[in-house]
Amino acid sequence: MDAQLPDVEAGKRFYGELFGWAYEDAYGTSVWARKDGEPVAALAHKTDGRMPTVWTVHFSTPDVRALLRRVEQAGGQAVRAPLRDGDLGVAALAADPEGAVFGLWQPGTYPGFGTRGTPGTFAWVQLYARDTAAANAFYGALFHEALFGAGAEPEFGRAAVADVFPAEMPPHFLVHFRVGDCAAATGTVQRLGGRVQAGPFDASYGTVAVVSDNQGASFALLER
């Protein structure tokens, strides 16, 4: 997953203090975030001011182009065509039929998360949709084995937008980072100039708070 930010240096300070991340130069002004030496995310400079400041989750696939065709055949659309990032891998952006944007990643030498599910790392992604039955059909067909196959560890959920947000909120993915104390972490977010949008509240997968950083990128904190 990565965050597209107007100011990467400010992002480094915010997430470094919140999650204890260290950083390594990646490409251009982008950086990889590391927790205990393992890659957990990337922070990238947002080059187009018209684009939103967001966190984007990328789903791994052995063939980006083939999966993008399946997205389009199922009623979704390509947002950004596949782009090779040296020998690291191939990335693309897609949107589901309701417009929720997600990434696709065909690994090369960079497989993705080095660690997850521990404090300061990825723990869950929640899709907020308007038509949850349609979302079940769309993503179930695309990612059935990855999401529901034998031995798969649940890391993906979906809910109705109105369960947490105003009904007019567009459908979207919300990445969750694991924390030891959700209430304390929301206090840190506010001290660093971020904002609490909702919660903490109890969800089926833990205690959640929806927050945004000091540049407006939304994410969630998850205690479980």
From TrEMBL:
InterPro entries (alphabetical): Anthracycline_SecMetBiosynth, Glyas_Bleomycin-R_OHBP_Dase, Glyas_Fos-R_dOase_dom, VOC_core
Protein name: VOC family protein
Gene source species: Streptomyces adustus
Sequence ranges assigned to domain VOC in this UniProt record: 1-107
Signal peptide: none
